[in-house]
Amino acid sequence: GQQVQQSPTSLVLQEGENAELQCNFSTSLNSMQWFYQRPGGSLISVFYNPSGTKQSGRLTSTTVIKERRSSLHISSSQITDSGTYLCAMEPGNMGYKLTFGTGTSLLVDP
Amino acid sequence: ETAVFQTPNYHVTQVGNEVSFNCKQTLGHDTMYWYKQDSKKLLKIMFSYNNKQLIVNETVPRRFSPQSSDKAHLNLRIKSVEPEDSAVYLCASSSGQGANSDYTFGSGTRLLVI
Questions:
Q1: Which residue in A31, A42, A99 is closest to B99 by CB distance?
Q2: Are the beta carbons of A97 and B105 separated by less than 8 Å?
Q3: What residues does B111 pair with on adjacent strands?
Q4: How far, in Å, CA of B31 to CA of B52, rounded?
Q5: Distance CA B80, CA A22 (A)
Q6: If you write DSSP's letter for every residue of chain A in order, what string do you get?
Q7: DSSP state at residue B84
């Protein structure tokens, strides 16, 4: 089964609204990372977040390793936030690789 | 500039041809990777190398062969490409594993097999 479950699959917001993206892991993990990808674009690391809460501008990530979950909160969304958000984990029993979720496709309308 | 650099950006080839993709990282990382992103945008690990040693080989067909000359370079060769090899191939590097596994990705090589 899918080791990394992301929700929602897609999300449409009006500019200025907030968004909460979720990531759940079915196995133990060493660390996890949030990435952002525009259509046809490269993967850009948003947060490297082994555990706890981190904030960068309008983005906040909270990871609870013991509960195998992470969230990404986007406040006051902007049109330029549109794209795909991917979470990935390094499995606890196997380093040297990331297992990715299927992503959340975000569209922010004006 | 420190980053992960991939060439070419885009490649079109016919079934049965051989292709090679290059990847170089200037981050001083010990570990490099190749990932494949399919048409549904799902990313899957193909290979991991740590200090030029193969660590992970994730049930990839034999026509795929990674090549590492040093820890800053990891190339990917595909002998006799097939239509299902059409995808985006992403190279990445990290400084280690576990708590030190902050990954940086290249911009990808888009392969189209016709």
A1: A31
A2: no
A3: B11, B87
A4: 8
A5: 40
A6: --SEEEE-SEEEEETT--EEEEEEESS-EEEEEEEEE-TT--EEEEEE-SSEEEEETTEEEEEETTTTEEEEEE-S--GGG-EEEEEEEEETT--S--EE---EEEEEE-
A7: G
- DSSP class of residue B35 equals E
* Host H or E run for residue B78: strand B73-78
Q: Do A96 and B55 touch (CB under 8 A)?
A: yes
Spell out a b/e string for A35-71, using b for 16 or more CB atoms within 10 Å of the CB, else e.
Answer: bbbeeeebbeebbbbbeeebeeeebbbbbebeebbbb
Residue A65: C-alpha distances to residues A19, A26, A32, A47, B102 (Å) = 22, 11, 9, 15, 16
Kindly identify which residue of chain B lies nearest to residue A44, measuring between CA atoms: B105
Q: Rounded CA gap, B14 and B114, in Å?
A: 5
User: Residue A100 in contact with residue A37, Cβ under 8 Å?
Assistant: no
pLDDT digits (tens, 9 = 90+) for B15-65: 999 999 999 999 999 999 999 999 888 899 999 998 888 888 887 899 999
Provide the pairing of β-strand A10-14 with A104-109: parallel
For the stretch A32-68, pLDDT in tens is 899 999 887 789 999 987 788 999 999 999 999 889 9
Strand B109-113 relative to strand B10-13, pairing: parallel
Cα B47 from Cα B55, distance rounded (Å): 7
